[in-house]
Amino acid sequence: MARRHWMERLNEEWPSEQGEVIFPVDVLANENGYTITALLPGVKAEDLNIQVVDNRVSIQGTLKIERDEKAEYLLAELPSGRFCKTIDLPEAVDSNKAEASLKDGVLTLFVPKAEHVRPKTIKVTAR
């Protein structure tokens, strides 16, 4: 049920802002936070805008494909244009400690959970 819930919520926000380029995303949750991995081949770091507000992550950008206007393409399927994906995370996060990297067309974004929602280990002492 939780997996279905995630899928229904992806791209739910900003429908009018939805871009032309669609990209796949994985969201991995653990006790420390969320690792978001997105396939963005051809996208440059300077063409990305990532925002974390409350528990919402927004990945926006532009994929620029240069095509020869005078050439006669038999097939032109490479995507080009804007993209936007919004992901609502189920728990509060610490946006100040979020980290992102882009390598070989793969975006990796780590967003830690807020301290107050992380599991706490309590040491038990014998009396």
UniProtKB/TrEMBL annotation:
Q: What is this protein called?
A: SHSP domain-containing protein
Q: Which domain of life is it from?
A: Bacteria
PROSITE patterns, alphabetized? SHSP
InterPro entries cross-referenced by the UniProt entry? A-crystallin/Hsp20_dom, HSP20-like_chaperone, Small_HSP
* Pfam family for this entry, one: HSP20
UniProt similarity note: Belongs to the small heat shock protein (HSP20) family.
Range of residues in the leader sequence: none
SHSP domain: from which residue to which, for each copy? 16-127
Please name the PANTHER family in this protein's record: HEAT-SHOCK PROTEIN 20 FAMILY MEMBER
> Which organism is the protein's source?
Bellilinea caldifistulae
